[in-house]
Structure prediction request, 474 residues.
Amino acid sequence: MVEHFKQMINNSKFISYLKGPDIFQNLWVNSFVFRILNTIVNLPIKFLRKIYYKWNNIFSSSFFLRILDYLCENFHHILGLFLIINMIIPDHRWYNKYGVILTLLIFIMFLFKATIKKDINIDLSQIDYMAVIFFLTIFISAISSLFPKDSLNYLIYYFITFLSVIIIVCSINSYEELDALVKFMMLGVFLTAIYGIYQWKVVGIEVNPSLTDLTINQGVGGRVYSTMGNPNVYGELLVLTLPFFGSIILNENSFFKKIFWIILSLPILLVLLKTSSRSAWIAFAIAVFIFIFLWNKKYTPYLILLGVVALPFLPSSIYKRILTVFNPNDTSLKYRKQILGPAFAMLRDYWLTGVGLGSRIVNIIYQRYKSFGLTTVAHTHNLYVQLWLEAGICAIVSFMLTIFRLIRNTFVAIKEKNNPSINNILIASLSGILGLCVMGFADHIWFYNRLLFMFWINISIILASLKLSKMENK
Prediction:
């Protein structure tokens, strides 16, 4: 009976879809719309390539172009520096226009690389079709917004985020380039941790009553926020990126290099604790569990046992902070419940199309629904409710399906075991994303544009890894 039931499950269409070829992506790639779109986005490259090779003798003698050529040969290092800059500039000195300018400069360099390298193109077939649909729904929500001018500012950052995904996926063509990009990114995270420790130990951080309920969190102290301006936001960045230390340590062949990366991870783990972000701690624990389960699930019982044994040895302030999650008197939990009630009422009126892209637009309409006693509400403290309110049912469904397809495609790639090193990077990236998605139930993790950007950078690393895995399978 049990064997018959197992056979029914294994023979089901849903399981066949999970295990078999990606039918829907193949249909998209072979569609007329895709071919037209892919041709259009590559027209600038073809035009520039014609000019370059027509005047190749002149261009090849240019000192400036030779420097550009060298930079393009090391484009993955430039991308890594780009990610570092996005992370290490302190919040009080960061402007979103910096991200826009940096991305456009990187895109210009990518165009130059594609011009001189005939094997480089914008290959939209490597971008999951559901991610394309999601960004299309974001565009529609911006132009159909109740306040289109306000939504335009948010749309610009979504645009450069999608552009960065395309650049990374299309320019990374070897494991060595992918590995270098990940290592650069983790060096950037390490630098933010050093800055966070400097804040904590040298400058000092005052306790902010708006971020910590002092009546039930005595002894917690100031919360580290590093370059992100908010401890919860910084915790989100660490949850998203810390799993990559696991992949780097596993992929390094040298014992001393493994030790080097373990040492680099220690300050980051320390500042994660000092963020005092309960949702970040829980999300990180889930990310670690997912990482171990995907890497070698036989170690998951030992991980759970280690976690239980470690609890009594935690510093008392951290242990007490964890217990406040279950305290019904915690003001942050009460505050979130107060926010979500009116938000669900608002959803009943705007569930189909949303009110328009951007938290500011949601806030304006939210004033009609908020309960008595609520003052300023920056966002709903829930990614999924916020996204639904902003961009409607199509956006939230396409986003959830994008995450589902990333899980599905990662599982298929891991099962094929083409390259263990690439698989480890896939596991790390997916673990960070799923950990942060869990955190999204307690906070609007895309409220800060740099976190929106880094979230999709993680997705671009998954897509680039899947591309490399397919290349090795051929």
In short: The CA atoms of residues 228 and 411 lie 33 Å apart. The chain is about 75% helix and 0% strand. Residues 175-203 form the longest helix (29 residues).
